[in-house]
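Give me the fold.
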Amino acid sequence: MRIKRSWIYQIVNEINGKSYVGSSKDITNRWGHWRASFKKEMKYKSLLQMAIRKYGLEHFTFILLEECEPTKEMLEAREDCYFDLLKPEYNILQKAYSPAGHLVSQETRDKISAANKGLKRTEEQIKEMAILRKNISDDTRDKMSQSKIGTVKSDQTKQKMSESHIGLDRSEEHIKNNIQSRNINRLTKLKQIETIAKVKNDIRPTLRRLSSQNVIDIRESFEPDNIICKKYDCSAAAIRKIRKRETYKDITNDGTITEIYVEPKKPKGKYIRIKTLSEFIEFSKNVHGDKYDYSEFDYINNTTKGKIKCSDHGTFEQIPRSHMYGYGCLQCGFIQTGEKLKHHK
């Protein structure tokens, strides 16, 4: 059984010293393939083929440069190294396996356009092309979309695109299809977000170190944090967060697990830019909910007190800025602190 070996090779013209550098995963077949292609009358002729027809095959030497691993990445990397080192004159491409950097002359472009003018594809060819486009795999589509990410179109290209769309009358069906496709994309994104949230809620209990009963015991315990943390093999900071309900928020005192309620974020920074009464009421309701009534409040600015009505203890006065930062009724605050003190005694 013949063993295939991967090599980087060089074909050198002994008369003028010009060369060609290439690579092959099966080097024993490559030189025979080159010899056979040189003898045939081919429509496309490379620089190396034209040179061999001019000087003769006997004036060219096939040299093995380096044996390497039979992978495309390794062959490409080593071939690029020899491109930079030897600078072969017969290679059309300046980089291995890539047309990057190769400029086609205007004469060649004119020949290609002249050869393709007037060509009409048959119905069978059109059907085959449509089938090929439909049968593109999802991986290929992902690669195509990722390759276009970050590409910036030039102003000239944008102008051409806009000019090509001028005067196009889109039918009502076309407009409806566009609207439906956009709505479908939005719905799919929303469904993905919902499924991710459900999966997180399902997986969360299995990934936790403490069970729901452990959390309830920690909340109801009167022992110090440094003693409880030794029982459950966790830090004292974690115990404090559990007691303050900063973590394990979805576990109730009954032991049942509910969906996490995300509290409204309090404003960051020293000042809040509120200019009207409606903005103040909207912002305050996001912080406090429906606990307070603002019908008697006369808004002037953020530092002037106004009347706010508590549902439990009646009317009190407070600065708008303090109220928006989370401060509320003083009597409600005294009751809450008293309950906390009783709990920790």
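The domain at 7-86 is CATH 3.40.1440.10 (GIY-YIG endonuclease).
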